[in-house]
Amino acid sequence: MKPFGYLIPKSLARACSLLSEYEGQAKIIAGGQSMLPQLKQRLISPEFLIEIKHLKGLQYVKSDRDGLRIGAMTTHRAIESSLVIKKKFPLLAEMETRLADSQVRNWGTIGGNLSHADPTGDPAPALIALGAQVQATSVRGSRAIPLEDFFLDFMTTALADDEILTEISIPYLPPHTAGAYYKESVRPNDSAIASAAVVIGLAGGKVTRADIVLGGVGSTPIPAKQAAQLLIGKKVTAGLVEQVGAAAVAEIRPTSDMHSSEEYKRLIAKVVVEQMVNAAARRAEA
Amino acid sequence: MKERLNLRVNGENYEVFAEPSSTLVEVLREELNLTGTKTGCDSGRCGACSVLIDGKAVKSCNVLAIQARDREITTIEGLGGRNGELHPLQEAFIENFAFQCGFCTPGMIIASKALLDENPSPTEEEVKAGLEGNLCRCTGYVKIIEAVLAAPGKIQIRSAK
Amino acid sequence: MKEYATVGKSALRVDGVEKVTGKAIYTDDVRLPRMLQIKVLRSPHPHARIIKIDTSQAEKLPGVRCVITGKDVPDKRIGLNVKDEHILAKEVVRAVGHAVAAVAAETREIAEEALDLIEVDYEPLPAVFDAEEAMTTNPPAIIHPDLANYGYMLTFTKQQDRDRPNVFNHSKIRLGDVEQGFREADLVMENRFTCQKLQHATIEPHSYVAQPEADGGLTMWFGSQAIQVPKVHLARVLGLHPSKIRLIVPYVGGGFGGKMFRDEALTAFMALKAGRPVKLIYSREEEFYRGGTRVATIVKIKDGVKKDGTLVARQIEAILPSGGSTESVVAFISRNCMYAAVGLYRIPNFQWDSYGVYVNGPVTTSQRGFGSPQIIWAIESQMTMLAEKLGLDPVKFRKMNFLTEGEKNLIGERVHSIGAEQALDDVVNFIKPGEKSKAEGAWRKGKGFAIGAKYSEAPTVSMATVKVIEDGSIVVYHGAQEIGQGCDTVFAQIVAEEFGVPIGRIRVVLSDSLVVPYDHGTQSSRSTYHVGNALISACRAAKRDLCARVAKGMRVSPDDLDVKGGVVYLKSNPDQKMDIPSLFLGYRPEREQWGFFAGEGEITGSGVYRQNSIPQDYETGQIDPKLADEDKRATAFFEYTAKAVEVAVNVDTGQVKVLRFGCSTDMGQPINPKLCEGQAEGGMAMGIGNALFEEVIVEDGVVKNPNMIDYIVPSMGVIPPVHEVASLMAPAPHRDGPYGAKGLGEGGVLGIDVAIADAVYDAVGVRIKDLPLTAEKVLRALKEKQPGA
Lengths: 286, 161, 789
Fold this sequence. Notes:
The structure holds three protein chains of three kinds. By secondary structure, chain A is α+β, with helices and mostly antiparallel strands. Chain A has eleven helices and 14 strands. In chain A, helix 10 crosses helix 11 (about 260-285). Chain B has two domains: about 5-80, Beta-grasp domain (Ubiquitin-like (UB roll), Roll), CATH 3.10.20.30; about 90-160, DNA polymerase, domain 1, CATH 1.10.150.120. Chain B is built from five helices and five strands, in the order E-E-H-E-E-E-H-H-H-H. The longest helix of chain B has 19 residues, at about 140-160. Chain C is an alpha+beta fold. Chain C has three domains: about 15-25 and about 460-610, 2-Layer Sandwich (Aldehyde Oxidoreductase, domain 4), CATH 3.30.365.10; about 30-125 and about 200-290, Alpha-Beta Complex (Aldehyde Oxidoreductase, domain 3), CATH 3.90.1170.50; about 295-460 and about 615-785, Aldehyde oxidase/xanthine dehydrogenase, molybdopterin binding domain (Aldehyde Oxidoreductase, domain 4, 2-Layer Sandwich).
């Protein structure tokens, strides 16, 4: 790694002002699980790192009236084992068990993961499907960004250079609404070849809400809106699920990587969407 | 620019001088001469560098030493008793032939300890999931899993004593 | 099977406590005062002329102590079988990763920064990456134009194919008349099998430490599978007497054939030039370029068989691509992989041609099987295909063609110690191929099995010494290396058995060339057999010495005495005995005082075991039949190993999961059953990786995945449940082995790729002849078989 200065602000406000002050020269470091490999390979060489992982004020899982708020510095491990998350958003806890490995989850944070914006990342599709939004904070104040609008391009987010992702909030799911997440990968916790997060709400056996978000098949997570729309007002049948799968594939933009061709990713994307639509629908019924 | 850094390792306080860009494994091995923790892939995948930070397994090649300040760090050297007594997990590894070349072993044992501290009676599936981050090229994992499944019994006997 | 006190029991490993406490020392743990760190600059081009190297800026960087390039290193070439490399490239680089310069600096960071400051001007040359293209008489690039003048290990001088400039070896077997055999056959089948480049991916990277000594010599610590071989090469290239070179091998973090002479010479040379201790630890990327990769062998196999299943003719052509900068023992591999085809099946007409070929790719070298797994991938796949075509049971088809004890194999050796039938029966009973498992959703299940033979090389020699010391303990000196296989434990068991003492009374000395006797190397599954035999001789010599000393005092003949359990006793009246410690002067047990020397010098015994080998004819590959009738042979022995798997294949994604794994191995006699299981289980994981996930992806000489994230080795999540893994033993004692033992380990991955491919075929009807069986490849094959499904 190229040497850097390491700054340890005592508060979030101080972190924001440092980030502003060192404009262009500094990067925020959370758990560093994605950042350290980049530093070692010299893909990035900031002159300063500003640590925020230690800020206790950013480590929480809080229940509000309308939903859950998760502090950006909450570790993956804390999310995986949180009783309230297991109860309210089981697909998040399941998603976390597929993320990297226990060591990475023990130290890495949800905020760091989302800010890194790896298009094969596990949390983003699941959180987008749940309708999450994030809080971006700077010296200029704080603003909410729907997570759906947060990922602009390959490893590029809507955060301004002086903004820090500080919170993720997720609205509670109404009754008969449930989600599921699955990724196809070589080893169980490798990067997604294709992943799908689906949230389905039912009323009288028919779909009233559908969110389908795919990961690993574009430069960002891809909400398959047209595919999801096909479900609205209908009963979930095998034939419909197949149509939805095919429609979702039409919305994705996968590129070949060293392990999977574009064609293969399309085939897998269809399979995981179909499986997750079925899984979410089953759970929503229960 | 090297900076002063205080680390607490295996119950002892140390003061080192290190670059902020030094990883925890580098400081443990080079500054503190605790060479039990190994560098295998230096990219956070193989797990040979696993240590405990506040009781949780972490890959020390993928953590900056400075991030580990004010924490309780435990390395393989800190596992046994003060009089050289082996931890029941270490005994289980020996009795179950759960290592061959031994290079992945310190990290494997540390990660196993973290697993058992959190889940004292894991199933085979839980052991596999918990140790997915630790690679071994020699054993094929079978005897490692057997050792970790055998350890809870030994831990119980030891705490009863 | 005879019962022994220690041999045949699963004694706990003697290195156990060290390894579980982190106290075991590996090379990177060696710290020396004023030690410098080495980083190596490697070529980005697969084939290029070096026009100019400017190191001046690098030399000026504070903390840099020594910079070397090709002009600084000796003109003498080095290489294991073909001397085709310099310590650093001199005029031409022949692979991406070929070393052109090296820096020794105070820290690794400074050394790395210095590399960035070295300027190299290259003139790219045409390169050739495909082995079949490279081996023609007129290839796109001639990689070693001076090949005819390189030094060769003696076995090979005659086998240089002068018409084909990139072919450094051509080995042959000619038995009978294959054309006639094909004419007689009822079925002739021909197929081409290929496999991917693999890497050992040992968790410990290649590691070297060298310290210059005051007498102009040096001491090295390094992770290695041999010390005598590197010592001889270093002495030659550095112009030092062997006595000035001390090589120490601490614990090694895995070898699998990859730690046999890589950059010892570079490290040693740098130490001498810098005048300070130096350390070189490969980055994980360097492991893929320089650490050595498994040969991606191309095998063309043609078989002729009668409709009752009798094999009448087999013709094999094997093409083995090596790396550009060095053949790195591939000459030997390209010759010795023939043994994979000769030790198991009876075939009256057999033709073998194997070629070692340079291509401008990353270094290839030996990897767990020394070329045999790739040959067996082809042979056993075709055997199952033949059985199916003929409508024969694949187990019976194999068994009817197995060689039996006393028959001659395909190079003319008389077969002895062949546990093949038992091994095959064991795995077939485990997997029950006839019984089909039910499908589960998109998962279809299938079963497959395979069997192969792995030879152990000859001629080789091992020596061993034992010393009985003042408390009656025995110190063991042997020249093998503990690379994880447990050899130190096995040797301790043998010595404990010979002396009739518990294993705790044995102390094994770690590998140090000034201390331990000669050994040919920890390879080819040879250590138990060779060192074991040498140890038995050594123990008997030491016991004779003990008896001679006691005989004088007891006024009996030495032949009347024996040694067991720490005492020397009269055979006819065991109560008349002497405690071994009492042989040492000054021994006073009542005062807790140990003795200090035995009256007439130390009590030692030395032994040597040489496995002789008779030569094979260069044209026919056959040994002299008269010598064969005297039970003389070319190889040391064959390990027979059978594998069987049950898999589940997902018809929507192509993913293959291994549900059950069984293996049975004939290793002659297990010395330590748990250690034998360890080899089988480790082989299982590696074999699953080789079959399904692992591939070193190379494009135009560049490795696309030189790290442990994108080079996918099995993790815990991909092995079967532990109760579905069976490591069985089918020992057929060998008359020349210690306690009947042969060896195992090399056969660890043998046949697993075939078993999995056969199981996939059984499950979903697609036959894949190119490894690995990635999910995408399987899915494509499924779609081609049933478009629109």
